[in-house]
From TrEMBL:
One of its GO terms (molecular function) is integrin binding. Keywords: Membrane, Signal, Transmembrane, Transmembrane helix. This is Hemicentin-1-like isoform X2. The keyword Transmembrane helix applies. The chain crosses the membrane at residues 209-235.
Amino acid sequence: MTARSDWIFFTCLFLDVLLLPHALDDISISFVNHTGPVIADKNYELQCLIKNGAPTKSITVRWYKQNKTIFTDTIKTPVKNIRKLKIQPNRSDDGAQYRCEAELEAEGPQRYQTMSSEHLNITVHFKPIIDETKLPSTVPVFRGYSEVLTCEAEGSPKPTIRWSLGANGIVDNENLTITELTPEDVYCNASNSVDWTTKRIKVVLKEDYLPLIAGLIAVAVAFISVIFIFIYSIYYKTAKMGRYSLKDAKPSEQNGNIAQNGKHNPIPMKKLSQSNILA
C-alpha cells in the first residue's frame, strides 16, 4: 500500500467516523394537532420526527407501547423524515407510554445508526360508568320504613353524583334515603368533563304485614289462654268438692249417724217422732 493509498483510506475512515454521529441528530414523538389528555375510543395521530445530518438510503421506524413493538415502517429513500401512527386509546390505556425508534441507513458502507425518542405518557379520560351491582333497577320500600340507595360511578376525571327526584328536587350526594313519600321514579346522574350517564330506579311501595300477623297471633294466643283458664277453673272446683252419695249408708255404731260412703266423717241425722212422721 502506497502513501497515497494510505492517505485516501484514512481520509475515508475519518469522514466515516465524522459523519456517522451526525447521521441521526435527534428523534422526537408527539401528538398531531393535539395536546393534553385524550378521550377514550376516539382516534388520534402520533408523529415521529427524525432529524438527520447525512443523506439516507432508508429509515426503519419502530413504534412501541409499554416497550412492546406495535408497528414497524421502513421507507426507502425518504423525502420527509416524519412518520405517523394512528391510535385509538381506551380507558385501560390511561398512563400508557409510547415511543418511536429509528434505524437509519446512510450512504456508504456500514452507516447504520439507531436512536430512540423519549417516552410519551398519555392520560385517558372516559365518561362515567355507574356500578349497577350496587344499584338495582327496582327497589322495594316498606311503609313506615326507610332505605338507603348508593350510586357509585367510575370515570376519569372523577364523576360528580347527583340524584334527581322530579318535582321533589335534587340531592347532591352518593347516598339517597327513600321512604314511602319518595317518588316512584328516581334518577342517579353521574357526570364529568367527558360526558354524563343516567340510571333510572323504580321505587316500589310495599305494605308491612308483619305487625298485623304478630297482632293476630297475640290475640289468638290470648283467646286460647282465656279458654284454657276457664276450663281449668271449672275442672279444679269440681275435683276439689268431690261427689257424695247416701247409697248403702250405714248408721254409726257410736252415735247412730249414717257413715258417708264408709268414711269416718259423720253426717248428723235427726230422729223423727211418730207425730212428726204423721204430720
